[in-house]
Amino acid sequence: MSGNKVSRQKPCHHCRSASAPPGTSTIHYEKSWLYRHCSSLQQRDRQAQKAGQLFSGLLAMNVVFLGSAFISSMIFNHVAITLADVWILLSILKVLCLCWIIYYLLGTSRQPHAVLYRDSHAGPIWIRGSLLLFGSFSILLNVFQIGYSVIQIHCKSKVEIVFPSIEILFVSTQAFFLWHHSKDCIQVQHNLTRCGLMLTIATNLLLWLLAVTNDSLHMEIESQLREVEQRLAGNETNLCICPNTTTCKVFQKGYILLYPFNTEYCLICCSILYVMWKNVGRRISHHVPHTKPKFKLQGVVFGPLLGTATVIVGICVFMIYQIQATGSAPNHHVFVMYYSYYIVLLPLMSVGAVTGTIIHALEKRELDTLKNPTRSLDVILLMGAALGQIAMSYFSIVAIVATNPKDLLNSLILSYSVLLIFQYITQNIFIIDGLQRQPFASPTKEEEVNKEQNHEAHNQRRVSVLELGQEFRRVSLSYIHTYSHLSWKRKALREISFFLVLCNIILWIMPTFGAHPVFENGLEKSFYGYSTWFAIVNFGLPLGVFYRMHSVGGLLEVYVSA
Fold this sequence. Notes:
- This protein is mainly α.
- The protein has a two-stranded antiparallel sheet.
- Helix 12 runs antiparallel to helix 13.
- The longest helix has 36 residues.
- It is globular and about 70 Å long.
- Pfam families: Otopetrin.
- This is OTOP3 protein.
- It is found in: Cell membrane.
């Protein structure tokens, strides 16, 4: 590939974004020596863009295959390839990514006409907020890992301290980069930027793969902890064991608690980086509307009430489960309670999703056919992430039907698995159909009048309790007035979307913070074997957690567009 060349020809009016300076007359067309004989400049640009995407994609594929070979060798032949070797490889990749990110921040993005266009759909605030949240937890996780290794420095390798230190620098720098530049449609140094983005994507995928495999190891240690403690009672032959101190226990428990957030952080970074990769060299027409409807908690009453009740009950179930299932003798009834909660909730979510899909079919809103890499990625992620939990459900169904489906707990697990598959399918259809619809028209006159009244009332000074009470009554009446003037379709869509948002939040919280009955009930583990079921769980569980988090963002988009 050759470098990018700047063309000084005056661009056509449909190639310039509204965000570009009025006097801009420079378009950075891509060129490649493979297509230098093309007569049309636009055709050369398109062909060079495809060639650059192909080359950068091949680079990422080779890096992922190399890293996967290292991680697989570590799992199956840990004598020749150790965890330290994998850490060294990943550290080299992270240093290369850091060098490119710093070069992008200080060099590429500051060049003249580098960012003429910004994708308004890319990097919404909910996904950037999730990026900062999970990034902060990942940094704290590495701090705990460093502290735990320092306490056991007499039996730990120096690599176990260096690797998380580099990880902290990588996570913080990458989070800063994605927060400020996730919407960029870079117009210079196309091939270098594509390769840098793909290298960073490959590195995050390998970090996710390593986190999944290591998660299986520490879950195995946790499940057999009581047996180990019994065998080591009064025996000090093991020199590398956590001393009975509060600091060591805090580091150990904190590391186990925060571990799932690291896998979520890697997946979020991959999704944002992929959208940036698709936007390299993209020129957005100024005819595309840049104004998006904003989130307003109006027009919803029953959805928040029912969703809040669901969250409160879910938290209570989760706390009881954590207390009893992690005890010395897990109670049979706690599994019955856990699966019963899901069996009640999943049909409600499915009915809501089916109802919303029917309302979408009755609407007169046209489909949004404009090119949107973010929306295309959302659909791919929703479908792909759902496969993990669906696969686990089918494995559970086979195990139960082949053993004893008439047992009470087995019957609940069977019902849970079938309902979960149906809920995933119906919710995906509802979200994808809603994302492809154009937003409703501008607010009605009544809504505009209410908005002006609320704004004027907000600016007035309150001087007495009586006026405060009158203002509260005014706001309440305005909210009821706005709710009553919405059409029944918009009401239903908002209620359903908000209810599903809260349901997915609680279904994200429970497995993220340690509720894993698919492993702890022992049914599938005894049927498939310890190692096989661990591999299935560690493939499906992180994808299921990521699906719940990502579906919240999609449902919020559906709510806002309604």
